[in-house]
Amino acid sequence: MEVKTSLLDNMIGVGDMVLIEPLSEDAFIENLKKRFDHNEIYTYIGSVVISMNPYKSLPIYTAEKVEEYRNRNFYELSPHIYALADESYRSLRDQDKDQCILITGESGAGKTEASKFVMSYVAAVCGKGQEVNKVKEQLLQSNPVLEAFGNAKTVRNDNSSRFGKYMDIEFDFKGDPLGGVISNYLLEKSRVVKQPRGERNFHIFYQLLSGASDDTLKKLKLDRDFSKYNYLSLDSATVNGLDDAGSFRTVRNAMQIVGFMEDEVQSILELVAAVLKLGNIEFKPESRCNGYDESRVKDKNDLKEMCELLGIDQSVLERAFSYRTVEAKMEKMSTTLNVAQAYYARDALAKNLYSRLFSWLVNRINESIKAQTKTHKKVMGVLDIYGFEIFEDNSFEQFIINYCNEKLQQIFIELTLREEQEEYVREGIEWTNIEYFNNAIICDLIENNKNGILAMLDEECLRPGTVTDETFLDKLNTVCAEHQHFESRQSKNSKFLTDHSLPHNCFRIQHYAGKVLYRVEGFVDKNNDLLYRDLSQAMYKAKHGLIKVLFPEGNPAKVNLKRPPTAGFQFKASVGTLMKNLLTKNPNYIRCIKPNDKKAAHIFTDSLVCHQVRYLGLMENVRVRRAGYAFRQAYEPCLERYKMLCKQTWPHWKGPARKGVEVLLTDLQVPAEEFAYGRSKIFIRNPRMLFSLEEKRRQCLENLATLIQKIYRGWKCRTHFLLMKKSQVVVAAWYRRFAQQKKYQNIRSSALVFQSFIRGWKARKLLRELKHKKRCEKAVSTISAYWHGTQARWELRRLKEEAQNKHAVSVIWAAWLGTKARKELRRLKHEARSKQAVSVIWACWQGTKARRELKRLKEEARRKHSVAVIWAYWLGLKVRREYRKFFRADAGKKIYAFTIQRIMQKYFLGLKKTMPSMSPVDKSWPARPYGFLDRTHQELRRIFHLWRCKKYRSQFTEEKKATYKEKLAASELFKDKKALYPSSVGQPFKGDYVEITKNPKYQKLNSFVEDKVLLADMVSKINRANGKGAPRVFLLTKKSLFLADLKTGQVKASVPLPDLSSVSVSTQNDGFFALKIKEGSTSAAKGDFLLSSDRLIEIITKLHCIGATSADKKQLKVDISDEFLVQFKQDKVCVKFIQGTPKNGNGVACKRKNNRLLEVSVPSP
Ligand SMILES: Nc1ncnc2c1ncn2[C@@H]1O[C@H](COP(=O)(O)OP(=O)(O)O)[C@@H](O)[C@H]1O
Ligand SMILES: [Mg+2]
User: Fold this and answer.
1) In the annotation, is 160 catalytic?
2) Distance (Å, rounded) from C-alpha 78 to C-alpha 69?
3) CB 598 within 8 A of CB 582
4) pLDDT mean across residues, the chain
């Protein structure tokens, strides 16, 4: 890409009109045309941008263009709206100057498009980020919403804004957008009920009917067919290039982005539908007995549907279209409306409804895009307001619009000239004031509070009696007759009496941009903007939320007999505020020009452009700019650009830039009247002079280019040569090294061969010698081995012979001994057998004898026994016979009872002897002697046990009793509920484990505690942050519990027992317990305590038992669960117990898992 450094590079025509030569209107238009033909639509007049509407899309708004213009100086690149936006944004951001961008031009000249380009440029170059992007998106998306409701197709522009818009974009100190505020000016509401030929109503009506779903239309009681609605003109209902249905989707989407709720959108659409319905209500006359006609609604269907949509009582609205209540002081009168008045009322209602909806929309958007911070904001205002309008038939609207343009021109004159003048003064340049037409006099004609046209109109509107547009004109004719910019046929000024271009019902004003003829018809009505109170009250009564808000004056509680301010008055006030606002900001101008009336690309109608150039005062602008000096530039860039024209300044100038420029201009022999030295800038009077400088620069640049080329070529050749030379040295060095290396390797390998031969020969010789020596040694040893072998064999043979002899002797001896031994053995065996036979025979004989004796004894015993039995029987018989006479009939029973008694006696006496011990835990009990005593035996066992227990208890002291009570309570609380319990059963409950009374360390603590200490022990207080424990002394008295420092004994916390709500423990084998504090109690501020102690069972039992002795007998609740909540100051933390092997050792470990969870892992049993 070619890099430009000045707008003067590759210029088509002149980029800045100030440089135009000669300065004439023709040259001006010619320059515009030339640039327009080359698609250069932007041209500067100094810092003002002229924009020609190209009526075609040009590739000059791309992201690359944005980057190109970003952070570049205004005159650095060819003219562009981005250059202005960049300049303005940077001076806002870097110099903290609030900016306003004033976009003017007639309808269709491209103002709205320009404002969008400015906004999108600023959005692209300012900061980024999620929040910032949201703000940007909302600011940009407010456009489609406002365009749908405020724009319409006109003959001049298919998307003409029918309202004035001023938007303040607010930035923070970094230049990031924070939000914005939109102000709207005078919506052309007459368009709602009537559109000129070839024009349309506001876009939203067509968009809604084309784009809404069938379902939505059904809900809104609408029909897709445009022709069903009186308010929609038919001749241009569809416009080429406008996709109403697509736009409807865009608008809905934009509304969502801007922040409209779904029900708000629905309400808005209902209002739009209601306006369409309203247009269809028609009236017919009905004669009354007093001779007057009264209007009646013709077909009530539309009225009904509209009332249903807005939740209005149909009869109330119907009545408001037939009667009108007039209130004066205390009196109320009802008059009938004729058909014309009813139509007037209907249209007034439709216009008011729509324009108020529009204002509400603007406010609603403002609410969404409002900056959220209250910090200091930098502001960039963008004004896109209707341009000067001259139609064939000009009415109140044109009058108001043109008045607004007069005011803008005032600002233009004021600020442009003031700035120009101030610059000269600032730079110390001699300056004589320039004459220009000041339109303040026209502004005065319109807005003067005493006799201005607007004041006259208001006076006329407020005057009692018959007021018509004609009486207003009469008034103007008398009051303004002398004014040199006011013309009227009937005025006192006889000059116009015969002017036939001036009809009788018109007046003419000579605006700064030309003469405009205004027809007075409708002025009074439009200024009054009257809506019958009955209608506004009917609207206020509606059940529709939005309608109610739009008609606050309908509230009967706030009846205001004062007339509302007139349209003219309101407009004047809002324009006044706008002007004040603009004056506080640094202005930037974009003046839009329309090249033709056909909305076509490539057509440049000279006369049309000439007209606009005239009334926009562009020539004056150039003249003012040139009257002083046509061109100015700071010394540094000027010197930088032209320094090559002088030997002293080229290539570097060491001194100050101003001095350099002076040297340069002197060297170039520029005549002194052609320029002036300012404090920081050089001012060039004549564009020709600048061009000659440019020309010289161009030539110089060519020469310089040749010089640079020459030096570059020389440098290139020399570098190449040096490189070749250097390479050659390197190549030679490498070659030499290679050759030497090769030679050396040859010599080395020959030496090695030679060496190896010699070494081989020497080695072989040595080997031979060594082999010979070795053979000799081997022979000697073989011979001696043979000799030694022979000797050894001899000796062996001799020894063997000797051994064989010895062996034979010992064998013979052994055989003889064996024979002897066997003989002896045989003898001994025989002897033994004889002895054994004798003893067996003896034993058999003894046995036979014994058996015979036994048989005899048995016989004898049997005999004796039978004798005794017979004797006993005989005795029994004798006794029974003797005693039979003494027996009575019940003797059997008595004997039985006696026997039983005897048995019982024997049983009890026996039991007494076999009683178990007195220990209550002794489980032994004697066996039952008789089956029938089974139950008695068990009962006795029970009674005995109870008695034994009573005896055992009676030995207890009071203290011991209390201890056992606690143990019992502990059992009730924890048995089978907490795994720690069994281990506590064997431990006595000692109470004081730290010897609080004796330990001198705790003397102070002891004295601090008033009541008797019931329990004192060391506990750990668990820290919620890390789950670690800190040692504390835990003291429990009848009334309170205390936690004190272990080392110093200083009390850290004391809690009255009534403040405790409950205590939580786990089911596991751990000592963790949480003391929960009652909500709202005095101790609650500290939060709950999470403690841990080995003696948990004792502590909690004691706490629990104290409750039983307290006044209200309320025992502390004990929750046993593996998960409970603990309130630490502000937050609740869940303590959760899990079984598992803790990482460090086998103790209980408490660990903080997250903000809300402490996990205690207890080793599994
Ligand atoms: N810079 C531009 N590039 C392309 N088309 C443009 C440009 N400016 C304006 N237009 C065309 O001209 C039409 C009218 O422009 P607009 O900004 O609505 O005019 P104004 O707001 O001055 O009445 C636009 O709809 C668009 O088609
Ligand atoms: Mg516009």
Assistant:
1) yes
2) 10
3) no
4) 88
